[in-house]
Amino acid sequence: ITCHSLKGPANYLKLEAFAESLEQEDQNRLVNRYKMQLLIWLLETKTGDLDEIKQKQRFAAYFDQLKHDGILSQSSDFYDYDFWQNSYVKAQTARVVITNHAYFLHRVQDDKDFAKNKVLVFDEAQKLMLQLDQLSRHQLNLSHLLQSLQAKLGTPLPLLEKRLLESLVFELG
């Protein structure tokens, strides 16, 4: 059985951003030294998962520049090596996918077949229903609705429909 752990894009290193950061010498010599350590890590990692890196919080501002944003151009020099893209492809072919509840709900909105024929294991599963409830709520602009109802009341309508609309306008107003 194939199994894969999939995280949101911000959990992976974006190679393009890292390459750009290498071209700029930082004023902080510790950051420059850390860039060299990251180059060594790149030779060792198979996942590009930023959780593998130690002292990430110490260089939080630098890592904010390196996090993957989920956007990857097919013309990028790093397209075939992109960690997040490769992880997503592995998840598509895996039978069992381990993922975070919030990431799953956003991912499945973009890719309806993502969970098809898969066994899903959720990290923080207890929060799944709450997150689903928050995502399923729709907002309604009451002013716009009232204007539409008022406009509809100005047209000739059967008496019952007119009274129902008047009642709605009264209740919403």
UniProtKB/TrEMBL annotation:
Q: What keywords are assigned to this protein?
A: ATP-binding, Exonuclease, Helicase, Hydrolase, Nuclease, Nucleotide-binding
Which named protein is this?
A: Bifunctional DnaQ family exonuclease/ATP-dependent helicase
> Is Nuclease one of the keywords UniProt gives this record?
yes
Residue ranges constituting the Helicase ATP-binding domain according to the UniProt record:
1-173
Gene3D superfamilies according to UniProt: P-loop containing nucleotide triphosphate hydrolases
Q: Name one GO molecular function term.
A: helicase activity
Tell me the organism's taxonomic lineage: Bacteria, Bacillati, Bacillota, Bacilli, Lactobacillales
